[in-house]
Amino acid sequence: MSIISEEDIQEIVETVWMTVLDLPIQVSRDYDLSTDNCLGAEIKISGAWNGVVAVRASRVFLVYAASLMFSCAQSDVNDSDCADTLTELTNMLGGTVKCLLPEICDLSLPTIGIDTLNTNDASWVGFDCADSLVAVCVSVMSDDHEIAA
Fold it and tell me: How would you classify the pairing of strands 111-112 and 38-47?
């Protein structure tokens, strides 16, 4: 359970996507990001509220988004560019969530890999952007949760 509602997540994602990528994004109830063609990242929030903001995106989306962020051709985008794009989006989402929290909290650095989070969990909100899949989860962090490397 999270103190950030699904509607809040939708609004945060839409704002970040328009600000960073100038791309519209809409909720999609039909998504599956459990394939090998996806990359995930997460950022931990700790303090008065302990939670995690996780993002999972298809490689197709990350290549497209990286080409926009770095003003280059999609054919020039490499794995490092995709990882940088994903961690930057995760960082911006985490920072925005942190601003909505009622008490002072700290934000970790984003890390690639979210193996410790269940991608089939109902707390994930799926999105469609540029005909590609993205999912975002904001949830309370369990005591045994560790940021995946």
Answer: antiparallel
